[in-house]
Each structure stands twice: as structure tokens, then as C-alpha cells.
From TrEMBL:
The lineage of its organism: Eukaryota, Metazoa, Chordata, Craniata, Vertebrata. Residues 46-113, 124-205, 214-297, 306-359 form the Ig-like domain. The keyword Isomerase does not apply. SUPFAM superfamilies: Immunoglobulin (SSF48726). The gene is si:ch211-57n23.4. It is found in: Membrane. This is Si:ch211-57n23.4.
């Protein structure tokens, strides 16, 4: 037997590498320190339980060097090492990361434990943030975020800052921080981000927005109406987030406010139209907060029925003289004047002349 024959002088048993065939009175480990990931500024405990004949003295080493005890670093009666507030490497102060082992000694000899690696938990910034994407309804969206945590971070997802509904089987979470959304619906649009958690920290990725660019489903038609009627110019747009619909005139003139109303979400209604309302109207659907927009045009033509401004007057003239009849009318489009004589259309001839728009 390796140990029992050498009781007179202390011997070391390196457990794990050589095995331990100790007698009851001699030293053996009940519990050896195991590898751990420590959290900064939190207490850390490393166990070292030994059985054997008392008195047993337990000491600890870090990276092969005896560890001095202090207020912050203590060895408990049961052999456990307690570091009150784990320290990260800092200039001028010791880092607590390293390889720790414990040594137990009684009058029969000394026993040294395995080396336990102590790492510091960390969660650096995300190195892959999810990317924004435009998704068609019914299609698939895939997002990924990546972070190197010690220990590995648990990744969950949030939509509009609310944890993702994980009972919804359209969402699939794969390792490596991948989120798949199948059968995308309008309701899926929003701000997604991933949340990484480990004992060191919790981090949120950059936010990503699924959006649909604005689309005008139906823009204004060309419309011809008569003064005092009501014009309705249609404009309906979709997108995610919901686009803002606005109206303007192509010639830059103001649409005004009197008699103007918006029907529904974006249709323009002009009551009691006048000739000034004629023009090309532009409906614009803007993605909120951006300059991204779609536009559609429609021409509104307002017509005015013919109206006489001046009528022919009765005249009497001697034979051989000239008689001039004047007739002025207005309207939109410009009225075409026809002269009648005793109910019959008067055509230009050798002694009849028509001027201006009568040609
Ligand atoms: C050692 O003692 C401390 C304090 O009494 C206790 O918290 C810890 O669990 C003990 N360790 C073992 C391995 O029994
Ligand atoms: C989660 O998804 C399931 C399945 O689609 C749905 O029935 C449930 O109402 C959702 N819960 C919430 C809180 O949205
Ligand atoms: C409206 O009229 C313009 C010409 O004024 C034409 O180019 C355009 O195609 C017309 N739009 C519709 C919807 O008919």
C-alpha cells in the first residue's frame, strides 16, 4: 500500500492522478473543489471536506502559491474557502481568477486536492445584432443575435419590450440565438430585440423593426365635376407601421381648409367645389418618422356651366348698313357660341361674319 507503510514521514497523495488508498485514520477527501464561474463582487465558496484523524489543518493555494487569509479571504472550520467579494483584475489589486487547490495535513501526512479552475463570469456586448427586415405577410422572418458569455448566456426574445409568446408555435428558437417566425402576420410587426442573461449580466440587443413599406392600395381617380358639387378623392394606404396619408396639390398651391374634410383614414372630401379647386392632387403615404413615401396623383377638373355676360341687343339699321351683335359667355370649359336666326343656325356667308370664337 502506497501510504500506510510511510507513516513516519509525511507523504503527499495527489488524488485524482494517483488514487487514494488511505486508512480511516489517514486523510481522504469527501469533497474536492470543483471548477466554478465566479461573479464579480459576489461571494465565492470552494469546498474542501476531508476525513481523517484530527487535528487536520486545511490550507489553500492559488496558482501553486499559498493563499494568505484576510478579512476578505477566509477558510471556514469545514475547510471551505470563502472569498467575500470576488475581484476582477484591476491595476494594483489582485485578481481572484486562477487555479485553486486545498491541502489537508494531519500527523500522518498531507493530501492535496485537484486543481479547480475559477473563471470570472462575463457578458461582453453583442457581436451580432438582429437586422431589420421587411417581411411579406405569410412569409418567414429569421433573426439572429450573438454574444460570447462566460458561462454561455441564455437568449430570449422580446417584441415591443414584452417577452415573446413562446406558446405560439409560429416562433421557433434555435441555439446560437436564432429566432424564426413562420407565417408572418400583420400583428407580428413591431420592435424585436433579444435578451442575453448569465450570472454576470443581462444585455439587450439593438432593436429591430419589422416593417412593410408604405403602399397605396387605391389612389385618387381623375374626376370631373361641376361647381358646387362635392369631390371625393380616394386614398388608402397600408404599411407597417401604418403610414401617414397627406394631401397636397402638384402646383404647390394650398388646398385650404374651408369645405375640406378627411373621410376615413385618408380620403379627401371637398364640398361645394369652385373653379379654384381644379388641379392635380397628390396623395402621399409616409412611413412615420422617415422621409420614405409613396405618392399617387389624380386630376380634379371642375366645370362651370355656360353663363352669358353680354347678350345681343335689338338694333335697327338702314338697308346697306352693318349691324353688330355681341354675345359674351363664360364657363369651363370655355363655351362654344352658336348664332341662330329665326331658329336656324346662322352660318358665315357673304354678308355674315363671325368674330372671336365664332371664327
Ligand atoms: C461549510 O460551512 C459553511 C458555513 O457554516 C456552509 O455554508 C457550507 O455549506 C459548508 N460546506 C460544506 C461542504 O459542508
Ligand atoms: C400566445 O399564442 C397562442 C397561440 O397562438 C394564443 O392562443 C395566445 O392567446 C397567445 N397569448 C398571448 C398572451 O398573446
Ligand atoms: C388622369 O389623367 C392623366 C392626364 O391628365 C393621365 O395621365 C392619368 O393616367 C389619368 N389617371 C387615371 C387614373 O385615369
Amino acid at each position: 500500500d502506497l501510504v500506510s507503510s510511510r507513516k513516519a514521514s509525511p507523504c503527499a497523495i495527489f488524488s485524482g492522478t494517483m488514487g487514494c488508498g488511505c486508512l480511516a485514520s489517514e486523510l481522504s477527501f469527501l469533497l474536492e473543489p470543483s471548477d466554478v464561474i465566479a461573479v464579480r463582487e459576489r461571494p465565492l465558496m470552494l469546498d474542501c471536506r476531508v476525513q481523517g484523524e484530527e487535528p487536520i489543518m486545511v490550507t489553500w493555494r492559488k496558482n501553486g502559491v499559498p493563499l494568505p487569509t484576510s478579512q476578505r479571504v477566509q477558510v471556514l472550520a469545514n475547510g471551505t474557502l470563502v472569498i467575500q467579494s470576488f475581484q476582477k483584475r484591476k491595476e494594483g489589486s489582485d485578481a481572484d481568477m486562477g487555479e485553486y487547490d486545498c491541502a489537508a495535513q494531519n500527523r500522518y501526512g498531507m493530501l492535496v486536492s485537484r486543481k479547480a479552475k475559477v473563471l470570472l463570469a462575463s457578458l461582453p456586448k453583442f457581436h451580432t445584432h438582429p437586422l431589420s427586415m421587411t417581411v411579406d405577410e405569410g412569409s418567414v422572418a429569421r433573426f439572429q443575435c450573438q454574444i460570447n458569455g462566460v458561462p454561455e448566456a441564455k437568449i430570449t426574445w422580446e417584441k415591443d419590450r414584452v417577452p415573446l409568446n413562446n406558446t405560439d408555435n409560429r416562433y421557433t428558437l434555435l441555439p446560437m440565438g436564432i429566432l424564426q417566425v413562420t407565417g408572418v402576420r400583420q400583428a407580428d410587426a413591431g420592435v424585436f430585440r433579444c435578451v442575453a442573461t448569465n450570472p454576470a449580466n443581462t444585455r439587450y440587443s439593438g432593436a429591430l423593426r419589422t416593417y412593410k413599406e408604405p403602399v397605396i392600395l387605391s389612389g385618387p381617380q381623375n374626376l370631373t365635376i361641376t361647381v358646387h358639387q362635392t369631390a371625393i378623392l380616394e386614398c388608402i394606404a397600408t404599411g407597417n407601421p401604418r403610414p401617414i396619408v397627406s394631401w397636397s396639390r402638384l402646383d404647390g398651391r394650398s388646398i385650404g381648409v374651408e369645405g375640406i374634410q378627411v373621410l376615413g383614414t385618408g380620403n379627401l372630401m371637398i364640398s361645394d367645389v369652385s373653379l379654384q379647386h381644379s388641379g392635380v392632387y397628390v396623395c402621399a403615404a409616409n412611413r412615420p418618422g422617415t422621409r420614405m413615401r409613396r405618392t399617387a396623383h389624380g386630376r380634379l377638373v371642375v366645370q362651370a356651366p355656360p353663363e352669358f355676360l353680354q347678350w345681343p341687343q335689338s338694333v335697327s339699321k338702314p338697308a346697306g348698313g352693318s349691324a353688330v351683335f355681341t354675345c359674351v359667355a363664360q364657363g369651363v370649359p370655355e363655351p362654344h357660341l352658336i348664332w341662330l336666326k329665326n331658329g336656324k343656325v346662322l352660318m358665315p356667308g357673304h354678308n355674315v361674319k363671325l368674330t372671336n370664337n365664332n371664327r
